[in-house]
Request: fold
Amino acid sequence: MTLKPVRVGICGLGTVGGGTFNVLTRNAEDIARRAGRPIVIEQVGARRANPDCDTTGINVTEDIFEVARNPDIDVLVELIGGYDVARELVMTAIEHGKHVVTANKALIAVYGNEIFQAAHDKGVIVAFEAAVAGGIPVIKSLREGLGANRIQWLAGIINGTGNYILTHMRDEGRAFEDVLAEAQALGYAESDPTFDVEGIDAAHKLTILASIAYGVPLQFDKAYTEGIARITADDVEQADNLGYIIKHLGISKRTDKGLELRVHPTLIPKERLLASVHGVKNAIAVMGDAVGPTLYYGAGAGAEPTASAVVADLLDVARDITTAHHYRVPYLAFSGIVEGDESLPIMPMEDIVTAYYLRLLAVDRPGVLARVATILSEQGVSIEAIIQKEAIEGELVPIILLTHRTREKNMNEVIRQLESLADIAGPVTRIRVESLDEQE
Amino acid sequence: MTLKPVRVGICGLGTVGGGTFNVLTRNAEDIARRAGRPIVIEQVGARRANPDCDTTGINVTEDIFEVARNPDIDVLVELIGGYDVARELVMTAIEHGKHVVTANKALIAVYGNEIFQAAHDKGVIVAFEAAVAGGIPVIKSLREGLGANRIQWLAGIINGTGNYILTHMRDEGRAFEDVLAEAQALGYAESDPTFDVEGIDAAHKLTILASIAYGVPLQFDKAYTEGIARITADDVEQADNLGYIIKHLGISKRTDKGLELRVHPTLIPKERLLASVHGVKNAIAVMGDAVGPTLYYGAGAGAEPTASAVVADLLDVARDITTAHHYRVPYLAFSGIVEGDESLPIMPMEDIVTAYYLRLLAVDRPGVLARVATILSEQGVSIEAIIQKEAIEGELVPIILLTHRTREKNMNEVIRQLESLADIAGPVTRIRVESLDEQE
Reply:
């Protein structure tokens, strides 16, 4: 039985577009054997050529919207990035009845609900494996492989730049700014690193993962986001002494009150597998009620790792292109999501419950520790460990606190009161602590 | 749009059967939302009741073949284990036009080719995610998620019992027999542990993974299998001193000469993520040409982890049940495999290339090291590290050697010559060493 080729239009021939072009070309024979039909590049829409790609014999246009309207294209691959033009391109392709594959996390996190609604109405596929954690097939694993489970929580290192910086801060005892500058020089960080180090990129990805895990609409605007710029080499060292490592995690948990959706620096026990994920690599830990803890690891960015996910989506499209729409895997894993499901609200940050690491500088006077302990006790926060270091900076003494799990609201009050004490100098550093064990 | 329920017949209500029954029942609502249709247990075939399962209102028969012939069953779930009856049951179900889901690695590794041929001829699905690494969706990841890639190698901890034993030997400096006895007392090891500790179970799973990774027929009889019973506490300690950890790995590599397919104890660098996989957990590292290194981690056995994979397969069946057979994902990832593809032969063990750890006991005489080094040199084996310890057992001195990569045939000759030296007492211990880096 010979099936017709699937005809692909690639929009954007930059890093990921070039990688996709090359993987589709290099592995064309294997890909056709997997799909049962060839997947051919029918057209490329790009303003600039990519010196790594030989487009000889390929129809190349500078007008990406020509690809979205081309009647000979079955699937548009959106790899231009950004919000507005990408959104218009994808909506145009859907209008013209084309399936869409995209690696654009910002687009899906922010405009996914409307894109999926439009695609649903047209009966076309929108696939986005490459939008989260590059080449790691975590969308497929969550949406299909763990489909038997009620997901209880997930936690991921889903920004390679941030993990690169934290890894080098720890291994070499260096300061954030120092490693960031190096990462920029090496091309691992953008000249404007805000998206990466402030956690916005990770929040885009976490938003997508949470929707798929729990069956809720995309709600990027409700994600809590905190960056890693305030982490000091001393925090990294203190965490190490306490048996922890600091990672910039995207965390989403199912609780009685709704869903937690938060990106922030986090202390995790050294013995967790996530703690051994170093450099630019990504990994996502997922806890299901049946399967227990699982983890998915790999390259979260880069030309060919991301292309690997784009082409995997194209393989799925090739298999499902003639399938009736209601037999396809739902965009957000559960049927009916695009219409909205508010049964699991995203919780405000002050309602989340976690443990905390606090670092404060106290005046070296008798009774300071007692006053600190009293403030915690009055807020119902119990202390797991307290370490008073030797005095530095004249008479100031660093105090490190590790608390048991408590509500963020109580911790906010603790920190407000601590900072108003005359004995405490400057702001209190607060880093959340997650055990990521099977019970949580 | 309301679709008809998918009607499932579960054969076997032991550990995995009971887990599957309970997950399908407990998460029925979520599962139906994912599949777009309910997945209902129409019949159970089991000789004994499972006290953990409430089968009230379910049609239970003691004759599993009644399930295979029942016209009201769409999918037979084979969870009885073993070879012959399971094979007959699955073939009967296929004859009767039923789709099959199985967790039976021995069945697939040994009889998979004929089962897939029969299923192909009947146009039915045979799904077996649960046959490898329990709840980890590694079959789906390899077969679909990494479909863009030419897989270069894979290496996995795919037997929980063996990993439990090695973990405790290392953490507590204990002997193999001692930890095995404990694992048996705790129910982590069978009273006859042969399948687990001799690597047969791992070879079944490796055989399946390799077929899917490279697109070759199942060839369990060509897998090399070596157990962990000869590993000593001293080997574990020496490996540790050299920066390695010993894991019982299933390894399959694509080379110019064909495929390597081997299960044996292996020294791997401590910094590899696989080295941090402890206790009964499983993990599989996969290297693709586009994606680079990836890893999949989770519970490799147990009632509900395995059920998680069985139910994921049922979700796939529910989606594909009305799909024409040639649009479905091929059993072994590539179309045309069931007819056989000999383009990638499984290599004989003596042709594989790897590095080696050798431990020998030498008489404490001048010139021994030189004689040892000469033997290696004459076989073209270069030495990375050589450690001569203090004398034990009278005048015997343990010598630890770490070699660079060489052909197994040459190493066999080295060991033959070493063991024939008058200066060397007893057999030479040989453990293979894999760097598992991105280049290999």
Chain B has three domains: 6-135+303-339, 138-299, 351-433. The longest helix of chain B spans residues 105-122. The mean pLDDT of chain B is 94.
